[in-house]
Amino acid sequence: MTVSAWYEALSPCPAARPARAWCDSDAETLSLDGLWRFRFAGRADGPTDFAATEFDDAAWTDLPVPAHWQLHGHGAPAYTNTRYPFPLDPPRVPDENPTGDYRRVFDLPTGWAAGRTLLRLGGVDSAARIWLNGTEVGQTTGSRLVTEFDVTDLLRSGAPNVLAIRVVQWSAGSYLEDQDMWWLSGIFRGVDLVARPAEDALDDVTVRAGYDHRTGAGTLRVTASAPARVRVPELGVDAAAGEFVTLQHVEPWSAESPRLYDATVSSGTETVRLRVGFRTVAITDGLLTVNGQPLLFNGVNRHEFHPDRGRALTEEDMLADVLLMKQHNINAVRTSHYPPHPRFLELCDEYGLWVVDECDLETHGFWLAEWRGNPADDARWEQLCVDRMRRMVERDKNHPSIVLWSLGNESGSGRNLAAMARWTREHDPSRPLLYERDWSCRDVDVYSRMYLTVADVEAIGRAAEAPLADAALDARRRAMPFIHAEYAHAMGNGPGNLREYQDLYEKYPRLQGGFVWEWIDHGLRASTADGQEFYAYGGDFGEIEHDGNFVADGLLFPDRTPSPGLLDLKKVFEPVRMSADGDGLRVANHYGVRDLAHLEFRWLLEADGQEVARGVLDVPDVTAGASVRVTLPLLPQTRGEAFVTVRAVLAADEPWAKAGQEVAWSQLAVAADPIPPAPARLRVHSSADGIQVGPGLFDARDGRLRHLGGFAVAGPTLQVWRAPTDNDRAPHGEALEPVWRSLGLDHLRHRVDAVEVADEALVVRTRVAPVGTDLALLATYTWTALGDDRLGLAVAVEPVGPWACPLPMLGVLFGLPDTLTGVEWFGRGPGESYPDTGLANRVGRFYRTVTDLQTPYVFPQENGRRAAVRWATVTDGQGAGVRVSGPAPFGLTVRPWRTEALDRAAHPTDLRPDGHTWLTLDAGHHGIGSASCGPGVLPAYLLPAAPARLDLELHVLGQGDAG
Ligand code: IPT
Q1: 607 lines ligand 1 (CB under 6 A)
Q2: Bridge-partner residues for 812, per DSSP?
Q3: What class of enzyme is it (predicted)?
Q4: Where are the beta strands (DSSP E) in 13-115?
Q5: How many whole angstroms from 344 Cα to the centroid of ligand 1?
Q6: What's the predicted TM-score (pTM) here?
């Protein structure tokens, strides 16, 4: 006998009601969210006696609904990227199948006025079997989709009702849900009873609202499942459902200007409220347009995630995402890789975001079996696949924000994708289709790919991509618009070279933008034995199979604070571009439809980072796509290096931000710093204590600096190592970390070859080299006394031998006392910058504590470098410390621990201040790139082993504490 269970069935539940739109109806609903009774088991085949009304669940525990049981102490979260955490034997799943039994007792409110009553489950991961008052109602499949049942005949009024649900973690559906995220189970979206009127119920309502950009006319057709009147008071519409209404003039909906009209559909027994947005999506002449305007997606891929709640988001979480996106110049979101909570889509309609709504389908792990048995290409799975598409499209069809449907993610190619596309074209011809993985584009309307190099994207922009074998398909694809479904993998420090991609999207019409991977780090809040909080990633819950911190690859940290990558993205996505134009300013409007009347242009003149003057620029109105030259006011004379910073800020509150919110900025250099005359050099003295060069006391034996004024100093030592970034480690790209480590760059040998004392200089010659090779870096330190409190240092580095790889970085490291805790600098800031990141940072004067200079990546790695620094001070609370400056800008990194400790740490809580303030001054870093999943560092941002110089001046401030 074959034991096959209900959750291994290959058909959608026959008892479920047909999919329909998510409607805001005046018919009553009763939320069953809250605390339920719960029992956890390791297998799914336990007795189902708990479904009986009289069952005694006193021994059970409480669990909130909606929630994931793993985040409430039952079972454990597990993370895999592509590999299924069970054997591939579709549709069978393991006997070890974590199972949650749920019970909820409720009373129908008095006067529950329902002809029929539906039980609606918003999302259950992954399959459930449901009983009401002891009778089986049906089953669910499709974790991120709604299932409804008619429970009218089972409900009791006047006596408590008992709802019992068995949820299994693994089901046939799990084979279709191999998204790169935590495996988290349970009833994670709301459960409701939904009243339906006995007659003329508006179970389903479909809105088609188009806009003719040539005439400004709107078209509206609302169909309903019962005879009804459609009313849009603002437009004077009062029509029968099904009637086609033409409106002389409407304001169109767009992500920039999300105009919605309140409408109602009334059948006499029920009224459904709608928010109608008029817009027409089309592919015209190879371009994806809305209202005749080609789109440029400045987008992100968004998973639903919260560090405590997993995918069970609250409305506040969803609103936070939308507001953060709007505030960071993001205009589009791909709902990777499943339909989100419907409330999120309402927020996208309201605040304005273009949406690619993606089906809950991913079979990625079959690549490990060379796609043998891929459910997306197996006829037995067709019904389940099409069911998922149908349920998404029916639920979400009325959202103006959704402009593309996506068939799913990473499911190879195959017949069921074609069947899903067929069904969709038939039922919603108003939106084009996207699916990234079938590169033939057989079933879709737009060409899309992920993680392409800049060169490959450019080739597509020029329609010069490598051809498909099938000439007809190739010609069809070559005429399609291109969307970069995933790019700029935002894992850890990075992503690099965002600008290069954006420049291409803006240059070639065919390139209609893309979606950065991904919105948020999926780090789960956890704490160490001694109570320090950190964010857990794959492996932290004892998983045998896992993909480590690949789950933490977002633009937001898990607690939704923006990472440096998000700030860079905001800069790259600016809808207004400002640049020097002679002695004026060119202001270019990059919006699709908006003019610039909502912005105020504030200017600020700073010299050496200090304010000299400010004002507001008079910018004439500039229509979308146009630009204008603006004269700058006559600026006062300044001393030192001066910049004018112009900031375009919101002139008045918008729904998504307050007046004053910065939208775009630019900085114009107005005066360079005059090079000061070289100071006279003082003499070098040798004594029994060592060699004295100005404020510096050196060890005569090894030429190392021991004291700077009263401060004990360790170093300097030549520094080439950096704690590898996720992009250096590159789990899915070209990894430099193993190259660097095998070369021994993480444990170089330092030798002092000569300590030469001259009248006016101390010269220390060193040879720094990896073990077991003849490669080396010759570093020569020339120290001069520029005063009693000022020490000059010139570091010259000469590589020896055929260095075949770039260096991680090149600089010198000083250990200072940890009483120096404050850092002020004049350079780029306030955030971190590497050669191909840090676009968000402007030149200015900034202050941070050493603690606040660290960027808390979920997985510790190189971070916190400030670039283009002209001078910096590292001081204690009393102003004593060290000032560093140089004739040329340098990189500055200040840490309370060594690079080696950062390199060893697995979580930020592993890092402990070691009693020093470690100061690294660098001549360069290797770029960042995005090889954690995608291309490496572009040639312009490599750091080759080449002759280099670093000229510095160390100035002792206040009185150092001897010691
Ligand atoms: C791609 C996936 O679509 C996405 O879900 C995520 O896993 C991303 O990569 C990496 O974080 S697939 C990739 C292995 C090319």
Answers
A1: no
A2: 718, 921
A3: hydrolase
A4: 24-25, 29-31, 34-41, 61-65, 78-80, 99-106
A5: 23
A6: 0.98
748 and 771 belong to one structural domain = yes
Looking at 546, 570, 594, the residue that finishes a domain is 570
Buried residues in 4-28 as b, exposed as e (16+ CB within 10 A) = ebbbbbbebbeebbebbbbbebebb
Residue nearest to atom 15 of ligand 1 (CA): 933
Question: For the CA atoms of 546, 549, 555, 558, what is the dihedral angle to 10 degrees?
Answer: 90
Q: What is the CATH number of the domain that holds 249?
A: 2.60.40.10
583: tokens are: 């002695």
What is the structure's pLDDT at 962? Answer: 41
pLDDT tens per residue, range 907-953: 999 999 999 999 999 999 999 999 999 999 999 999 999 999 999 99
Closest atom of ligand 1 to 336 CA is 5
Range of the domain at 614: 576-671
Q: Which two tokens stand for residue 886?
A: 């140089």
CB 555 within 8 A of CB 490: yes
933 Cβ below 6 A of ligand 1:
yes
Burial of 215 (0-12, 13-18, 19+ CB in 10 A): exposed
The pLDDT value given to residue 676 = 79
Question: Which of 128, 162, 196 lies at the terminal end of a domain, its last residue?
Answer: 196
pLDDT in tens, 568-600: 999 999 999 999 999 899 999 999 999 999 999
Active site residue 486: yes
Which of 80, 335, 450 gets mutated to test ligand 1 (max ligand atoms within 8 A of its CB)? Answer: 450
Selected catalytic residue, list 410, 518, 600, 606: 410
Domain membership flag for residue 678: no
**φ/ψ (deg, to 5) at 551:** -80, -10
Matching residue, tokens 């870093």: 925
740 lies in the same domain as 837: yes
The total domain count for the chain is 5
